[in-house]
Amino acid sequence: MTAPEPVIAPDPASAPEPVIAPEPTSVPGHTSAPEPTPATPTPPTLSCRGLSKRYGDVHAVQDVGFDIAPGEAYGLLGPNGAGKTTTISMLVGLLRPDSGHVRVCGVDLAADPMRAKARIGYVPQEIALYPELTGRENLRFFGRLFGLPRRELAGRIDEVLDLVGLGGRADDRLKTYSGGMKRRINIGTALLHRPEVLILDEPTVGVDPQSRKAILDGVEHLVGEGMSLLYTSHYMEEVERVCDRVAIIDHGRIIAEGTRRELIALVGGADKVELSLEGDLETALAKLRAVEGVIEAAMTGATSIRLLTEGGRHLLPALITAVDGCATVTATQVIEPDLEATFLHLTGSTLRD
Amino acid sequence: MWRALAAVGALELRTRLRDGTALVIALIVPVTLATLFSVALGGDDPPLRATVGFVDLDRGEFPASVRREVMGSQELKGSVTLRDLPGRQEAQRALDDGEIGAAIVFPAGFSHSVGEGRGGDVSVLTSPESPLAGVVARAIVDRISALVDARTLAVRAVLKAGLPGDEVKELVERNGAAGPAPALEDDPLSGGKVDLSVHYGSGMAALFAFFVVGASFRGLLTERKLGTLDRMRAGPLAVWVPFAGKAAVGFALALVSVCVTWAASVLVSGATWGDPPAVFAVLLAHVLAAAAITMLVTSRVKTDAQADGVIMVVSFVMAFLGGSLVPMHSLPGVLQAAALLTPNGWTSTALTELAGSGAGLAAVAGPVAVLCAIALATGGLAVLGMKKGTLL
Q1: Which residue of B has its CA nearest to A94?
Q2: Given B7, B230, B237, which is nearest A124 (Cβ)?
Q3: Where is the segment annotated Disordered (chain A) (predicted)?
Q4: pLDDT digit string (tens) for B323-370?
């Protein structure tokens, strides 16, 4: 298995401002709701405002709102029980919110559910398919259900089977599939009617690393082709890899939203840069300290220097240039703070609590 | 929307055919059980014995000739006994006590009224506990009615022709409207074959209708467990489509089941269930009621396993109380009263009526209306429960 590379966040200058709800010391459950990000030039594919749902005295979801632009991958990151699935259930019309509204490509879900739902591809957390039917039969059933014309359906099923890499097992009963294969066809079923936004609720729970990689590759491919994505997970590394923007949800509230970098910046985290050098390390250390963005520098061995920087990965060319003439950089490693740390900072708990 | 409905229905039918519930529960088991029961417990016609009360307040020629005919009939010899009773109230009391199975009441002045061309009414008192006696009494009265009609018509015609009243009787009798003697040429017991083959056939049909239609509603809970129900509800289709698709298939299978059991009963035992359109109306109404009740059960339980158990209990209780397993007249009085709370009770009553009397749709309009009312009431409650349970 190869570890997923963290997604490099887009240029902060062009990204929406992060929305921060609480001060680091505030209690997550009692924070005020964040305002959604400013409207993008094109209308959002999926938009919700003020979504709330309570069961008795329990507020499952409170005042949740966000926009997902066309072609954008949006992550909903939170621990189990944070309100992710309840939020999704309201977004796909399975649950009627106590308050708030949902718009899909400008269509109000409550006012015109059929048109709105036709634009959504919903992948539930569990494998919501018929184990006694074959993969192809499952796809055919849901294709008909979603109104695909009969003539188009067979071809579309083959396309989807190819997309999820199950062409060779299409005519086997689903109950004979491995967990990962079931997950893949679970996603494929949601793609049949070419939705404009794909909603994935914890799509990799319980799958093997190989299938997880295949699922994430496939999702990235879909987003690359312009499909909007709402991806919920409590696996921080998946959200980091797939999503352009992330909302952190806890106790039913969105407590922070922004790009990965923006969220990490909330906790004031600096990148660590490990440099391996040959040459005059004393001189190199002095020159590196002078580079703008370097907060701190220390020699950690006969051939290594550790730096604390702001924007470590972008700073690498300047660092290499700075030591030119006195030392040669033979290896670099940038260790960036992650969302796990941010989440811990914002909520006081870890994602897997 | 119809395509989605057809897709759900087709999948439901395919699932039911694949798991065997369509073939086994809907067809094989009810037909086999009905046949086995009728062979083991029914067989040929059961011994026919009936005591018919005879209330003669008329003291005229009509009752006298009826008594003569019945006593002299070879077909009724040893099977039907006439028991004289002084009045209608006594007859009703004897009927309620089970001393007689039916009663024929000739009102005072009956023969005189018929002789003057004004016709007359003969009452028949019957009890569901003794369908055979009721059949015999009705057969006799039907015959009397035909005679009375003919006699009345003849007398009116002669009177209109201007003949003096005191010569009418003689002229009418001399010219073919022979005296008031009901000739029981046909076997009046032939309609009394409300025998055990019909009873068990209709009983099994009524019982298995619950299982067959219940399996489809139970399927909604299975779909909810699988997550496929939510997946459908998240799709671009009306919220009622999954429910309606399954309900339509379950209803159709149950209707096929009861009709096949009916046909098998007729073919195997040679018994008749009565007027076909009326029998179909009763069976249709029964399936409607069974569908609504199993729907209500489904709306109140959490899992498909619970639904299986509760539907089975409800079906057997309804079948027992409603005369689907044991003839209603064999049950204690309190249980007979309880039978009227079950669709099986009304279905059993209606089918017994049809098989015994040869009556048509009008005779079972009441039970059919009650079955539809049960379907409406329980169905309404079920819809509310299903909406709450996100099944609908």
Answers
A1: B234
A2: B230
A3: 1-46
A4: 888 877 777 778 888 888 899 999 988 888 887 666 788 888 999 999
Q: The domain containing residue B166 runs over which residues?
A: 50-192
Number of domains in chain A: 2
Contact B206, B348 (CB under 8 A): yes
Surface of A (132-151) touching B: CB under 8 A: 132, 141-142, 144-147
- The answer to whether residues A109 and A116 touch, using CB atoms and an 8 Å cutoff, is yes
Q: Are residues B176 and B216 in the same domain?
A: no
Contact yes or no for A146 and B226 at CB 8 A: no
A223 and A315 in one domain?
A: no
Per CB-CB distance under 8 Å, the chain B contacts of A130 are 11, 226, 228
Residues in A closer than 8 angstroms to B234, CB to CB, are: 92-94, 117, 120, 122, 124
Highest mean pLDDT among B165-174, B262-271, B351-360: B262-271
Coarse DSSP helix, strand, coil percentages of chain B, rounded to the nearest 5 percent: 70, 5, 25
Domain ranges, residue A211: 19-119+195-266
* Same domain, residue pair B233 and B128: no
User: B143, B165, B192 — which closes off a domain?
Assistant: B192
Tell me: do B272 and B287 sit in the same domain: yes
Higher pLDDT, A272 or B292: B292
Exposure class string for A110-127: b at 16+ Cβ within 10 A, else e: eeebeebbbbbbbbbbbb
Please identify every stretch of chain A with a pLDDT value under 50, giving residue numbers as ranges: 1-35, 39-40, 353
8 Å CB contact between B207 and B48: no
Using the Cβ of A112 and the Cβ atoms of chain B, whether some distance falls under 8 Å is answered with no
Q: pLDDT tier at B168 (50, 70, 90 boundaries)?
A: low
Question: What is the ipTM metric for this complex?
Answer: 0.72
- By the 8 A CB rule, do A46 and A92 touch? no
User: In what order do the strands lie in the sheet containing A58-68?
Assistant: A58-68, A46-55, A99-104, A107-108
Whether the per-residue pLDDT at B287 is higher than 90: the answer is yes
Specify the range with the lowest mean pLDDT, choosing from A40-49, A139-148, B52-61, B215-224.
Answer: A40-49
